[in-house]
Amino acid sequence: MDVQHALESHPSINGMCDYVGISRSGYYQREKRHNHQSPRKLRKKFIQGEIKAIWHKSLCIYGAGKITQELRSKGYKIAERTVGKYMRELGIHACYLTPGISRSGYYQREKRHNHQSPRKLRKKFIQGEIKAIWHKSLCIYGAGKITQELRSKGYKIAERTVGKYMRELGIHAVYLTPWTTTTRNSKFDKQLINILDEQFNPLRPNAVWCIDTTYIPVHDGFVYLTSIMDLYSRRIIGWDLSETLEVSNVIPLIEKTKHSRHISKPLIMHSDRGSQFTSEAYNQVTANMTLSYSKKAYPWDNACIESFHALIKREWINRFKIHSYSEAKRLVFQYIETFYNTVRIHSHCGFKSPKQLEDEYQTQIQNLVVA
To answer: Kind and range of the H or E element at 71?
Structure first.
């Protein structure tokens, strides 16, 4: 058996030795006898064989860092810098995945057909990731949120670079401003107190809720979206779409939300001074809550829910010409239930979704109870 041929077929020295039936010491002695190489050069050649074997086993994904860890787990004392040097001498490096083909296939195909450098291959791969994240976000995310998503996957990349790649791809965050504005008269009462006082960061879920109603234009007028937000996670915990601003639409929504959230502790319910939120029926359904109201003509007191309503219009609703109530309800459901609560990352939540933040809170509480 030709040892050189065996080495090419089995780049791991261990594999080659097992294949041809010789020991490591026998390999060293043979190499020294035939090639007159020093022990240091033999060790280098041996380790380069190990590096190449680990690299192939990882589908050509591993870089110097991970290969160093693999070597150390096998008992080798070697620096990452040395591994990187050996990899450059071998002409190998970490490769990247593009959707639809394997990592090694991607690298080989691109290098064979396009003769692109590793830097260009990495850029092309990351642009594919950016486009996938952008589409998954319903074309809503800009460079900031896409950067956070990439970093959560392990990429080290600057927001400025992501923005540059997005411009090259011709994609951007979709923001559409509404084509009309309306105002709503409110019942003002000096006894309606602002208890929340812009303290928008409670320490637990179900401590502070806020409620508000906004309009959505349809073909023959408007429909009205009433939303309830938990300020801890910014999650929309209840919503209703109605064709009028009557309080009779708000009461069932609050009842349903109280039931779904299993309220056990007192909480603050904050709203503006709209007529439906100052009515007797509203006071009755929120009897066990502490009511808080924004100051007169001062929407910043309810900024979080106002921001959400601006967001759903800017990112989603304003893309469509809505012809009916049922079409509007479908679009609202799609945005809130399949994206905003469960997928869309929020800077307030540490770039997690509202659901993820609440799930982590519940896990922490359960761990404390067990402990």
So the answer is: helix 64-73
The set of residues, in sequence order, having a beta carbon less than 8 Å from that of 42 and lying 6+ positions away, is 28, 31, 32
pLDDT value for 31:
61
Q: Which among 318, 316, 359 has a CA at the least distance from the CA of 339?
A: 316
pLDDT in tens, 197-230: 888 999 999 999 999 999 999 988 899 999 999 9
The amino acid sitting at 286 is T
Look up residue 47 and give its two tokens. Answer: 């380790």
Residues 337, 238 contacting (CB under 8 angstroms): no
Contact indicator for 174, 315 with CB cutoff of 8 Å = yes
pTM (two decimals)? 0.56
CB contact at 8 A, 348 and 145: no
Tell me if 217 sits within 8 A of 241, measured CB to CB: no
The Cα 256–Cα 312 span in angstroms is 22
Both structure tokens of 362: 């519940």
Q: What is the DSSP string of 191-233?
A: T---SSTT----SSTTSEEEEEEEEEEETTEEEEEEEEEETTT
Locus of tokens 């086993």 = 57
How far apart CA 83 and CA 101 sit, in angstroms, is: 28
- CA 281 to chain CA centroid, nearest Å: 41
Torsion of CA 127, 129, 133, 139, to 10 degrees: 30
Strand partners, 238: 228
Contact 155, 132 (CB under 8 A): no
Residues near 367 by Cβ (< 8 Å), separated by ≥ 6?
none
Q: What is the pLDDT of residues 3-50, one digit of tens each?
A: 444 444 444 555 556 655 666 666 666 666 655 666 677 788 888 888
